Amino acid sequence: MIVDRMQTYSKSELNLVHDASMDILENTGIRFHNTGAIELFRKNGFRIDGSRVYISEKDVVQALERVPERFRIHSWNPLRSVWVGGDDYVLLPTGGAPNIATAAGQQRPATLSDFQTCCKLVQTSTQLDMIDSLMVQPNDLSPLVAHLDLLVNTIVMCDKPFLVGFDSRINVENTIAVAQILTGGGDDLNTKATFASVISPTSPLQYSEEQTYAILQLAKHRQPLVITNMIMAGMSGPLSLPGLMVVLNAEILGGLVLSQLAGPGTPVIYGSTSAPLDMKTTIAAVGAPETCLIASATVQLAQFYRLPCRTGGILTDAHLPDAQALAEGTLLMSTVIRNGANLIIHACGQISSFMAMSFEKWLIDEEVCRMIRTVMGQVLITPETLDVATIKSVGVGGEYLTHPTTFERFRRLSQAGIFNRRAYPEWFQRGAHRVDNEATANLQQRLQSYEKPRMDEGLEKELKDYAARKKAEILKT
Length: 477
Hints:
globular; 14% strand; TIM Barrel; alpha/beta
């Protein structure tokens, strides 16, 4: 009997990938462009050749034994804290886009105001569990200090746990300092996961100086690392999926080993947003079916090592919130949630192969998330839910519309938000709006429902004062 037609890799197949990855790590090695990391590896007896480190299977197994299978990421509002791992999964919005896409298909540079709009949408969302501190890249901020403005806005405008990414040492140091303010200083930061950080290998088989430094510093404080590569199959990794899995796996495990040397027990999320390279355009085809296959393999490899997994979410190569965007995004999102991903970034708003975000698509994507969560819910079959007594009482040829059990239970049915369920005459009379038109119309209403979360005034002032002081220092130099 076929339960799921999507390929589930056997233990022997995953062992082949594991063995090939161990061969690469032990005999080809992996580069860490950071002297501190190289010295740490050397002190622990690893074979070193310049910046290249050779890692044995024994080293990998020892590191994996230290990583928790499930952990909690805490928010400054305890009610918003989330669990990651096992059967738990959390959704995050899109991140990193330099542009805003309009409903008409035009694009303009993102601004701080756009980022603040994103903060409001996350705070008011019933589907998003965490916030990303780089949902868009504002072009009206100095790149030298933008991370401080974005980080403070992320924290004070939204009380959900936050995710960060780094492109410099100073970003790492400032984020740790801000987290220490949030936790009241002392050793609390070392014992409580306060934020999660995306760590990105440079494929194939390298970690930059900045990313390696981030691993060392964050592991020192036991803050969760989301080690995520984005290999472009055919450019920065093999075109064949099995070969891609080997490179993907070796890179992530190499970073994981370093994290456990720097901070044993540091939570690590195994992640990838790898995709095939479109040979006609030389663009990563994130909406391609192969991206779903890679994501499914990523989840299964993470489960093989008993690690939480991160994947991409509602990804598309489309430039409009149109049928292509909906088809590509829903296919990937349903795949990764069904397969067991635990931390899903780009669940809402991503468009144009990561180069833009769309507010209209954000609201449409939330509808998709709501539907998938419902589909993934369990239907409990018990004597009570079978409700044979009601079936017998209605009997042959009766009706259920006015039955008391219908009145008791109908509110449990899923409700449409901006998706249409009206009959054609009413839909046409109301303006015959497409779903993207509905999203545009609902955006302002959604933003008007935003209420800034109540943070202690002293804490908020301390965060803003720190950011202002550091900005002045950076710009002065």
